[in-house]
Inverse folding.
């Protein structure tokens, strides 16, 4: 569960040392729940999207209080936890509990698009055709289905890569529709990544970095000192306060429960 939260839009190389540190410090949900949200956000460090740390902490509290400290084993229970959507719930069921679930991440969807649908890349959103294909390909037994989910994900990440796929090493190249068609470019629009430089996300990250490193509180002057845009600073502060990612007392700011 921790790895799935951390791996959302973040590469494995960046996640692995944080994941090891996190589980060393908080090996159980109860351990994390006993710490403050501030400590969770600090421990997240530079992984990005720090809302994930807050939601993981909130989930740990719920798991401790409602599920006797054990990560739940049903889709309905998992989906009720903060920060867990369809993909994350299915991934936890497959990889933690060896259950037969459909795990459709970007790597698996790219393999499906190329090998079965003859397209260079997947559509921005999951289609009914993809869901039907994923269901038909999934082995019947729980153990084999979980292994298939892990294998197809690794295959997409390491062989059928987004850029420069290793077709010469591909074990299914002779059955790949995209390869047999001459690897044509697809007319399906690619999902665009929002620019980070100069974005609100960058400003939010800058504010949280200051507060992570400051054990006391920071004034608006402290936060504005290196801000390139006062308006963006104000908007970012408003968002972080609304989401309870930070707290404000007497005009000074800190991580929640610091």
């Amino acid at each position: 569960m921790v790895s799935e939260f951390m791996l959302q839009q973040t590469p494995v190389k960046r996640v692995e040392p944080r994941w090891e540190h996190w589980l060393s410090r908080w090996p159980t949900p109860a351990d994390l729940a006993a710490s403050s949200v501030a400590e969770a956000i600090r421990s997240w460090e530079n992984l990005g999207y720090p809302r994930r740390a807050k939601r993981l902490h909130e989930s740990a509290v719920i798991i401790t209080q409602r599920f006797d400290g054990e990560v739940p084993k049903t889709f309905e229970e998992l989906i009720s936890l903060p920060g867990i959507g369809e993909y994350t719930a299915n991934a936890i069921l497959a990889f933690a509990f060896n259950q037969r679930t459909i795990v459709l991440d970007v790597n698996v969807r790219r393999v499906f698009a190329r090998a079965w649908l003859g397209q260079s890349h997947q559509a921005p959103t999951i289609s009914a055709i993809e869901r039907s294909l994923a269901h038909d390909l999934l082995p019947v037994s729980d153990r084999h289905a979980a292994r298939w989910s892990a294998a197809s994900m690794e295959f997409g990440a390491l062989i059928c890569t987004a850029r420069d796929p290793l077709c010469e090493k591909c074990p299914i190249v002779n059955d790949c529709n995209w390869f047999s068609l001459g690897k044509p470019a697809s007319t399906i629009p690619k999902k665009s990544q929002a620019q980070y430089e100069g974005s609100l996300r960058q400003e939010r990250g800058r504010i949280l970095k200051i507060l992570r490193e400051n054990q006391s509180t920071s004034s608006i002057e402290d936060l504005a000192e290196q801000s390139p845009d006062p308006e963006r600073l104000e908007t970012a502060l408003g968002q972080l306060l609304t989401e309870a990612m930070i707290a404000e007392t007497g005009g000074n700011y800190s991580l929640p429960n610091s």
About this structure: Residues 200-254 form one domain.
